[in-house]
Specification:
43% of the residues lie in helices and 23% in strands. With 315 residues, the chain is of the alpha/beta class.
Length: 315
């Protein structure tokens, strides 16, 4: 039995039994994966995957048990590697943060600067993507820490740690009639073209839900993943913007004004996602605490030990 065979098993299962996709993800050949899985099944004396011809169709009952154990073995092997890197490397190492544009642009700069000043020998990488990508990168070990507002709670294999709450605001060009709406209402917003985030980003689900509950249909004419893009098109007069409040700066965003919108869309929670069972290195604990001071090493360890899969840990 080889670790590589276990990697093949787990990746095939993760890819919905698509051997071609698993081979591409692992940079190997489809026949090679099929051969190694067959050899492992013969060694174990059980069938892991049901087949129809050459196509895998389902995971067998013993196969489900084998896959669960294989995932734990691979996670422990990765943890051994991480421990070795941490103690052999001294103050050096690498840290990959997977996050969205909004977090990278507005929430993380001061944290990153502080961390780099403290750990100049740690190679820090920011990997930007949409929330589903971010979660997948963390699950596959391609990122150490995931930071996002949307989607992380859909992955029970991730431990979710709430970091901070934020709210939306509505932005408009100076002199726009909407600025006279006191208080601002969803009905008033629905009468104007709107520019906001793509459906997977920055609390967009709360915006959609608010209009749905009010039985109103917003006239969303443009979406983007980047608040700076949204502000650019608002400045051109193409619509009103709905963005994260942290993304608006009166000094920087000349020509625009913001209206608070917490009463319309509620608050959003940004979370850190960590793969369950991972060994967390010393400087990872420090980065987490710099980003969310309430998430001390003790709090993170308690959460990792006590939160059930699919639950968000409450401090």
């Amino acid at each position: 039995m080889k670790l590589q065979q276990l990697r093949y098993l787990v990746e095939v299962a993760r890819r919905g039994l698509n051997v071609s996709e698993a081979a591409a993800a692992l940079y190997t050949s489809q026949p090679g994966i099929s051969k190694q899985i067959k050899l492992l099944e013969e060694e174990l004396g059980v069938t892991v995957f049901e087949r129809s011809g050459k196509r895998l169709t389902a995971v067998t009952e013993p196969g489900g048990v084998v896959l669960g154990i294989a995932e734990r073995i691979l996670r422990d092997a990765e943890n051994i590697r991480r421990v070795g890197e941490e103690y052999a490397g001294g103050d050096s190492g690498s840290l990959v943060i997977a996050t969205t544009h909004t977090q990278a642009r507005y929430a993380l700069p001061a944290v990153v600067k502080n961390f780099v000043d403290r750990h100049p020998k740690v190679r820090l990488s920011l990997r930007q993507g949409h929330p589903t990508q971010i979660a997948e990168w963390a699950l596959k070990g391609e990122a150490d820490i995931a930071i996002a507002t949307e989607a992380l709670d859909q992955y029970p294999q991730l431990l979710m740690l709430p970091c901070y709450q934020w709210v939306h605001c509505v932005i408009a060009p100076e002199g726009h009639p909407i600025l006279g709406e006191k208080p601002l209402s969803l009905a008033a917003l629905s009468r104007w073209p709107l520019i906001t985030y793509d459906s997977a980003f920055a609390g967009r689900s709360r915006i959609n839900k608010a209009f749905e509950l009010a039985q109103l249909t917003p006239n969303v004419v443009l979406t983007a993943i980047d608040a700076d893009v949204i502000k650019t098109y608002v400045s051109l007069g193409l619509g009103l913007g709905i963005i994260a409040g942290m993304a608006f700066d009166p000094a920087r965003d000349a020509g625009l004004q913001a209206l608070p919108a917490e009463h319309l869309f509620g608050s959003n929670t940004t979370r850190i996602g960590l793969r369950r069972g991972n060994h967390i290195r010393r400087y990872e604990y420090e980065f987490i605490e710099l980003f969310a001071p309430q998430l001390t090493r003790k709090a993170v360890d308690m959460a990792m030990a006590g939160a059930r899969p699919g639950e968000e840990y409450q401090l």
